[in-house]
Each structure stands twice: as structure tokens, then as C-alpha cells.
Design a protein that fits this description.
The chain is of the alpha+beta class. 56% of the residues lie in helices and 18% in strands. It is built from 13 helices and 12 strands. The chain has a 6-stranded mixed β-barrel with strand order 4-5-10-7-9-8. Strands 2-3 form a two-stranded antiparallel ribbon. The longest helix is centred in the C-terminal third of the chain and has 44 residues. The radius of gyration is 34 Å and the shape is elongated. 39% of the residues are buried.
């Protein structure tokens, strides 16, 4: 018996039990749709996190003072004053893998304009900071090197601060604000960056020359942080090694001495978040994949029942010349038709569900072609695997006993 006839017989058998066939497909449909939707959500989250980290500066390196023991007491890193301007200058002048370097000192407080005020944080930085953090000027201009040398009372403000202090839409450039008791003239407004992946508002800040914040607000001479950017993300480790060597030399640390500074890179954060996202994605996909297993068992159950119900039919076919391999092929084709049809419906449903999640929940999604092909291939193999035993059982029936079967 040729394949075309076997296909027609299998298709007709399924059409005779449409509802049962659809209910059998349901497990496959739900399984495939779940896997595609879960992977789309997981990959969308991963790409969204990577994009946000890239916006923050994926090659950014942050240097903080480290904790230390003084008189038997462990001091907090915030109490240490181990980072100096000389460290900043040496990093700028003696590294090959670092492009931009900025000091950073900050203070939380109240920004005030007339009757309007808002709590925010002022960061004392230099002009390299804008390149490192990828901030752009939306209006006005940045402060100059001359402003840094003279500790000028000028600043850049984020969009959140502008919205709170100038709710009437007034152009803030050139206006005076007070941070605590210190008057500052706004020379520029930063482009909005929104919230990052950790829920922090990147527009709720004021940037000023670091000398201004050091002298006029904090009254300190040390640095709370040094922020750098490597030539590219690929050179982050080399840049960290250079920075570490310079700081150990400057701080007169001998081999084996504990470092009085800590260096962290955005690459570490990116790797941690993406690995966590990948793990959660695989967990969700594995849970969704259980539906495929349940669907496969459903196919096996229905096909086994079908063999039992059609025992006499099998016997008649074999008595008029059908061979065991023909019977095997017929039931395998039925099983594969169920799984492939369910897989196609599941793919369409999964893509549709992912799009609905994006539109309704505003959740980032990314449907990878391999996830669609993999889900479809798995459901096809499921049909073959779980359909084989019932088909083999049908092929092994004795024609005479099958005809006598009641």
C-alpha cells in the first residue's frame, strides 16, 4: 500500500472522531504555545536588560574606597578617604585601556526654586562623566573646565528635577536654584533616560563640577568614587588590571596586603542579570515543556484506545493483504498528524499570546526563530515517540484473532 493511500486512511480516521482528535491535540497545542510564549518573554527581558545596561555604559568601571581595620575596628567603606585626585590623574595619564575618567562626590538634599522644592541628589563630576554614563544635553550646554577649576556655582539638571521645580513649563536654562543653602545656576538640561532595570530614576539628579560639591557642599578633599570607561566592553578586564596596579602603587600596598579600594564593572552586573534571566527562562520553558509531555501521553492513550476499538478493522485489512509495516505506518501517520497539527496551532497561539503580552502588559518580548522550530520539532518527535508503541501493537496483531475480536 502506498504512502498516499495510508495518509488518506489516517486522515479519514481522524475526521471520523474530530472532537476526540482535537482534545488529544490540546495538550500539544498548550505545550507548544506555552514554550514559545515563555521563551519570548524571557528573551525579551534579557534583551531589555542588556539595552538598559548599554544605555548606562556597558564598559563602565566604578572604583570605591574599600573597608579597612583601624584600631581593631572594621570601618565602613563610606568612612574611608583612600581615593585622591592623584589616583584620578594617574589613571587618566597611565592607562592604555581607559578612555574617560571622572571623579564623583555626591550629596542628597533639597533642591528649591521659589515655592517649589524636591528631594534629589547632586553629583560632583567632570565633563567626562557625560560620556561615561551616556548622558546628552537636551537644552543649554555643559559646564566647562574653567568652571571646574574655579568651583563655579553652575549645574546640569535631569528632567525629573525640571518637572518638579518648573511645573509651569518655564525654560530652566539660566535660572537659579538652591541646593540646601548653595545657589546654583542651571546651564543645561539633560536628555531624559527614564528608569533603569533596577527601578532607579536616571533623571532625578543634578550634576555640578566636582570641585563645587567638594568645597561648597561637602567640605572634603578626597573622592567618594572614580568612574571610568574602558575602550570597549571587551577590554574591561585589562582596564581593571591597569587601574588596580596603579592604585596599589599609589596607596603603597605590598604584595599580600588587602586592597583599600574595590573595583566593579558594569560587565559583572550584565553577566549576573543575564545569567539570572537565562535561568528563569529555562525554568519557565521546562515547566511549559511538561505540557508537551502530558500531550504526548494523551496521544499514546488515544492511539492505544484507537487500536483496541479498530482491532477487527485491522484484522480485515491484514486478511486482504495489508502487511504489518502498513498498519504500523497508518497509525504512526495518525499520531504524527495529531502532533503536527497541534504543533502548528500551538505555534500560532504562542506567537499571538506573546504579542498580546507585549500590547496589554507592555512587557518586552523577543520571539527567536529557533524556539519556534525547536518547539515544532519536539512536538513532531513526541507524536512519533508516543505513537510508536500503539502502532507497533496494531502491527503485531494476529489477523485471525483480530477478526474474531468483539
Amino acid at each position: 500500500m502506498n504512502f498516499a493511500n495510508l495518509f488518506k486512511i489516517a486522515f479519514k480516521a481522524l475526521c471520523n472522531n474530530k472532537l476526540r482528535g482535537f482534545l488529544t491535540m490540546l495538550g500539544i497545542i498548550i505545550g507548544v504555545a506555552s514554550v514559545i510564549t515563555m521563551l519570548a518573554i524571557g528573551q525579551g527581558s534579557k534583551r531589555s536588560i542588556q539595552a538598559e545596561i548599554s544605555e548606562m555604559g556597558s564598559n563602565m568601571i566604578m572604583i570605591h574606597p574599600g573597608g579597612d581595620m583601624r584600631g581593631g575596628v572594621r570601618l565602613d567603606a563610606d568612612d574611608m578617604e583612600s581615593l585622591k585626585l592623584k589616583d584620578l590623574e594617574d589613571i587618566r595619564n597611565n592607562t592604555r585601556f581607559v578612555t574617560y575618567v571622572s571623579p564623583s562626590v555626591n550629596s542628597a538634599g533639597q533642591a528649591i526654586v521659589g515655592a517649589n522644592n524636591t528631594p534629589t541628589t547632586i553629583y560632583g563630576v567632570n565633563t567626562d562623566y557625560l560620556e561615561i554614563r551616556r548622558y546628552r544635553i537636551a537644552d543649554g550646554d555643559t559646564f566647562s573646565e574653567q568652571d571646574i577649576r574655579t568651583a563655579a556655582k553652575v549645574c546640569l539638571v535631569g528632567q525629573t528635577v525640571v518637572d518638579e521645580l518648573f511645573p509651569d513649563g518655564t525654560n530652566p536654562v539660566g535660572r537659579m536654584i538652591r541646593f540646601g543653602t548653595i545657589p546654583l545656576r542651571i546651564v543645561g538640561v539633560l536628555e531624559s533616560k527614564g528608569y533603569n532595570s533596577m527601578g532607579m530614576d536616571q533623571d532625578d539628579l543634578i550634576l555640578a563640577p566636582y570641585t563645587t560639591v567638594q568645597k561648597r557642599i561637602l567640605a572634603i578633599t578626597h573622592l567618594q568614587e572614580i568612574v571610568c570607561s574602558a575602550l570597549s566592553e571587551a577590554y574591561t578586564e585589562e582596564a581593571i588590571d591597569e587601574i588596580s596596579a596603579i592604585l596599589r602603587t599609589n596607596h603603597k600596598l605590598k604584595e599580600g596586603d588587602e586592597e583599600d579600594f574595590t573595583i566593579r564593572s558594569q560587565q559583572e552586573l550584565s553577566s549576573m542579570l543575564t545569567s539570572t534571566t537565562d535561568m528563569m527562562t529555562m525554568l519557565l520553558a521546562a515547566v511549559a515543556g511538561i505540557s508537551l509531555l502530558v500531550g504526548g501521553i494523551g496521544i499514546m492513550n488515544i492511539m492505544y484506545m484507537s487500536v483496541t476499538e479498530r482491532t477487527r478493522e485491522i484484522g480485515l485489512r491484514m486478511s486482504i493483504g495489508a502487511k504489518g509495516r502498513d498498519i504500523l505506518a497508518q497509525f504512526l501517520i495518525e499520531s504524527i498528524l495529531i502532533s503536527v497539527t497541534g504543533g502548528l496551532i500551538g505555534v500560532l497561539l504562542g506567537i499571538g499570546a506573546a504579542v498580546v503580552v507585549k500590547v496589554v502588559a507592555s512587557f518586552p518580548i523577543y520571539i527567536q526563530p529557533w524556539s519556534v522550530f525547536l518547539s515544532f520539532a519536539v512536538c513532531t518527535l513526541t507524536g512519533v515517540f508516543f505513537g510508536w508503541y500503539p502502532a507497533q501493537k496494531a502491527a503485531m496483531l494476529d489477523p485471525i484473532e483480530a477478526i474474531r475480536y468483539e
